[in-house]
Amino acid sequence: MPEGDSVFRVAARLRAVLAGQVLTAAELRVPAHATAVLAGRRVLEVVPRGKHLLTRLEGGTGSEGGLTLHTHLRMDGRWAVFAPGERWTGGPPAQIRVVLGTGLGTAVGYRLPVVELLRTADEQRVVGHLGPDLLGPDWDRAEAVRRLGADPGRPLGEALLDQRNLAGIGNVYANELCYLAGVTPWTPVGELPDLDRLAARAHLLLDANRLRPGHITTGDTRRGRGNWVYDRAGRPCARCGTLVLTAQHGTPPQDRPAYWCPYCQRGPAPPGRGPGPRGRGTRR
């Protein structure tokens, strides 16, 4: 599932060809909305909300209000943008779920697992449950801290992935934030001495990466050096040289791979695994 900074960049690409433009082509290739007629409507804006994308359209004739196309990438979805006349190369036609065309180009949504057309007035139905958006104009750190701390016994990695606490963190940042806090992903939230610092660091990381790919957390943009522990199982920790370990965290079926350094990070090991006391990792 993409991180919030990735979705932010997707929204920017869509905005470049859609915002302020009248749709000359519009197809929703999903059963629920296959007959929707959107061509001729003006796109008002494309807004990222956590990991959700909201494409807002002006109202139609009469008293009909504005509409919002709500999409979500999840694990496999992708938006591609093509110049006028350019061949669509984002995947086979059978994978196309949405086509939105203007005089500036065409946005094509491939393998989108969520495609929903609703009244703009009803957007809260699909995004109202989300916590403060780390890249939103109304980011509220105090509210994010309050939500994170509301369940002090919950494992930190799981709490960070819960979009109801703060919106935009995926598995890369969940692992990296645990590392930067010096605790394992299974450490109860209530044992962190400074949740405010954690929330501030989360905002800083996503904001720094919102215009560049890679989810860089180390400050090093060279290939293979952008993250401290994420996807580095069996490789030495960049800070201490201890081999990075991996296991699953979260609640099935939503569990995801966790990565941690048993020397740099204090706290519980995953269930069913030895505690791995700090300072006793396999080092190089």
UniProtKB/TrEMBL annotation:
Keywords: DNA damage, DNA repair, DNA-binding, Glycosidase, Hydrolase, Lyase, Metal-binding, Multifunctional enzyme, Zinc, Zinc-finger. It catalyses: 2'-deoxyribonucleotide-(2'-deoxyribose 5'-phosphate)-2'-deoxyribonucleotide-DNA = a 3'-end 2'-deoxyribonucleotide-(2,3-dehydro-2,3-deoxyribose 5'-phosphate)-DNA + a 5'-end 5'-phospho-2'-deoxyribonucleoside-DNA + H(+). The keyword Plastid does not apply. SUPFAM superfamilies: Glucocorticoid receptor-like (DNA-binding domain), N-terminal domain of MutM-like DNA repair proteins, S13-like H2TH domain. Pfam families: Fapy_DNA_glyco (PF01149), H2TH (PF06831). Residues 228-266 form the FPG-type domain. InterPro entries: DNA_glyclase_Znf_dom_DNA_BS, FPG_cat, FPG_N, H2TH_FPG, Nei2_N, Ribosomal_uS13-like_H2TH, Znf_DNA_glyclase/AP_lyase. Belongs to the FPG family. PANTHER family: ENDONUCLEASE 8. This is DNA-(apurinic or apyrimidinic site) lyase. The lineage of its organism: Bacteria, Bacillati, Actinomycetota, Actinomycetes, Kitasatosporales.
